Amino acid sequence: MKLKYKILKIDEKEHSLLVRYYTDIITEDFLANAFDETGKIIKESDGSPKLCRTDTHFNIWETPSPSLEELEKTIISSAPLEWLKLQEKIKNPEIDTSLSSIKHKVGVETEFEPIEIVHSKEMSDEEIEKLIIKLTSEPLNKE
């Protein structure tokens, strides 16, 4: 997967950016979501789709404006990476993404008991140190 982004627009009045994410497999045309009455993708003058599912608006809260490196870090860290990976898997005919195991449940009302969520405990530095000492001082169980 080759991740890509394109800055589509900078709005200085709103101090914001519009960014599009895509990959070498999940292309801009694949992500397009603006179509004319014949079903053809509506394109900009540069040939790119007018709208895509991954177009993301960013308000830049910091003023004065952050550096290029800081802005790129925000753009890159906000990429819908897991969603793009899923889209690539869905597009791959060799991967079963049919959800066939649950299709029979569509439209069926099902009663359930809630699942208890166990929250992990945050450990203090002292507790972490003690655990490390304990784990490193115990002999390995060799069977």
Number of helices: 4
Largest sheet: 3 strands, antiparallel
> Helix/strand/pairing class, anyone?
alpha+beta
Low-confidence stretches: none
Residue share in β-strands: 5-15%
Mean pLDDT: 92
**Overall radius of gyration:** 24 Å
* Separation of the first and last Cα atoms: 42 Å
Strand order in the sheet with the most strands: 1-2-3
Silhouette: extended
Task: Walk me through the topology.
Blueprint: E1 3-11, E2 16-23, H1 28-31, E3 56-59, H2 68-77, H3 81-91, H4 125-137
Antiparallel strand pairs: 1-2, 2-3
Summarize the structure.
The protein has 143 residues and is of the alpha+beta class. It contains 4 helices and 3 strands.
What distinguishing features does this structure have?
143 residues, alpha+beta, three-stranded antiparallel sheet, 4 helices, 27% helix, 15% strand
Describe the overall structure:
The protein has a domain of 89 residues. Strand 1 and strand 2 form a beta hairpin. The longest helix has 13 residues. It is built from 4 helices and 3 strands; from the N terminus they run ββαβααα. The protein has a 3-stranded antiparallel sheet, with no helix packed on it. The chain starts with a strand and ends in a 6-residue tail after the last helix. 27% of the residues lie in helices and 15% in strands. With 143 residues, the chain is an alpha+beta fold. The protein is extended, with a radius of gyration of 24 Å.
